[in-house]
Amino acid sequence: xxxxxxxxxxxxxxxxxxxxxxxxxxxxxxxxxxxxxxxxxxxxxxxxxxxxxxxxxxxxxxxxxxxxxxx
Length: 71
Fold this sequence. Notes:
The protein is mainly alpha-helical. The protein has three helices and two strands, in the order ααββα.
């Protein structure tokens, strides 16, 4: 069974690509934006934690702040 369909030159010129690249770029910008907001909120908070709408909680803690490595 032969599934090859001949495409005319005029039809080839009408085909547009790039939808996947556009969606990927938009998703990347969105992810970078959300990450930047979380980092900024953690950086400016006094406790080092952030709770975002939807129940997402992020906490910045180092070993020194938690008292794991005591001198």
